[in-house]
Structure formats: C-alpha cells, structure tokens
Amino acid sequence: MALLELRGVKKSYKSPDGHVQEILDVPSFDVEAASEVAIAGTSGCGKTTFLNIIAGLLTPDAGQVQFAGKEVSRLGEAKRDAWRAANLGYVFQTFNLLGGYTALENVLLGMTFGPGVDRAFAAKLLTELGLGDRLGHRPSQMSIGQQQRVALARALANRPKIVLADEPTGNLDPRFALEALGMLRGLCREHGASLVCVSHDPRVLEAFDKTIDFKDVNAAMSRGVDA
C-alpha cells in the first residue's frame, strides 16, 4: 500500500460571472513511503491546488485522498488540521514566515500544532541548515535564502511522514537554488519523509531521479486549465 493515494480527485472553481472552471481531474496518483518525486508544470496549471488538496487545505469536489490507508479528504476541518500537523510538512513558495517572530520562534510555533514543542530539535534543525547564529533573528533581518532555510526547518519540525514543496526555489538566486533543494532533500532522507516537489525550474527537476509531467497527472489540463 502506498503512503499517499489519490483516486478520482476533482476540483472546480466558480468565477464571479458564474462560469465553472475545472482545475483538477486526477484519476490516480500515489506516493510511496520514504520516496521523492518531482512534478513538472507551468505556472497556472493547478499544481498549487493539487498540493493544497493533498495537504487538506482544500477539499476535493469528488474523489478520495488516502494517507496510510485512512481517508483524510472527507474529515472535518479541525480533524484535517490535526492530521496535517501530525503527518505533513509544507514548504510554501512565499515561505509564510511570521515577521514579528524570530527564526526559532517561527519553527516553535509550527510545533505547537503538532505532537508538541521540542526546542532542542527546532534549534538542531536550524543549526543543520546553517542558521545556528540566526536563531534570534526576525525574517526582516535575514536574507531570502536564510528565510527559505527557516521555512525548511519549520516544514520538518514535527517529523512529518511527507513533505510538500511548492516551487521551493522560486524566490532564490540561481546560485543558491540547488543548495536549498539539496538541503530539503537531505533533511527528508535523514528523517525518512517522502518528498513531493512541484516546480517549473529545469535545474530543480533534473536533480530528481523521478519526474512526472503534471499533464500526465491532471487530465483537466487536456481540456484547458486556468488556475
């Protein structure tokens, strides 16, 4: 049994003029435990919606999302939040760090929604990412690359079984993009987490042994997607 299984997942949105736009139609998608996969796709093709449905931030109009044999797509919002905190890490394209909090506090806050706060582990993650001397710095006091590392540490803080990464190098200077990707992959391997990374950057995609074109996952793309 795969760690993550999507079956017949569909999602549409209604525009202000009442037009219904189909965004996702995913007949089948699996992720094995402790594996990694890159998904290639252009901007606006529905990749972020796809990840948000996996993460339980959105619910599908139809179909199932199963994790370790348990269907999570039809759980209530509170139960989805609890499931996500216990099992899943998310690296957002825009990092989503809280500006009023330090690097360490941003990671600790993420822990409060999971199994519990582990200050030593949070500091260890940040130190492994080269931020041992930046624990007390706020995002505005750090470079974009350093903010990205805080986001990586936060995603791994609750020791998730799967990590989703949405264009994780999109805001980084090309010199540091592959370095950040290497850190993310290394941390996932170290902690036994599966990694699903979506990107349109050829350099990122070439780094993975397994790459899937999103048009082969999302049948809606063949019918026209504007997500």
In short:
The protein is an alpha/beta fold. The chain has seven helices and nine strands. The relative contact order is 0.21.
Structure description:
The chain is of the alpha/beta class. The protein has a single domain (4-223), classed as P-loop containing nucleotide triphosphate hydrolases (Rossmann fold), CATH 3.40.50. The chain has 7 helices and 9 strands. The protein has helices at residues 47-54, 77-87, 103-111, 119-128, 144-156, 174-190, 202-206; strands at residues 4-14, 20-31, 36-40, 62-67, 70-71, 88-91, 162-166, 194-199, 211-213. Strands 6-7-8-3-9 form a 5-stranded parallel beta sheet, sandwiched between helices. Strand 4 (62-67) and strand 5 (70-71) form a beta hairpin. It is globular, with a radius of gyration of 17 Å. The two termini are 31 Å apart. The model has no long low-confidence stretch (mean pLDDT 93).
* Overall CATH class: Alpha Beta
Kindly state the mean pLDDT as a whole number?
Answer: 93
For the largest beta sheet, what order do the strands appear in spatially? 6-7-8-3-9
Strand % is 15-25%
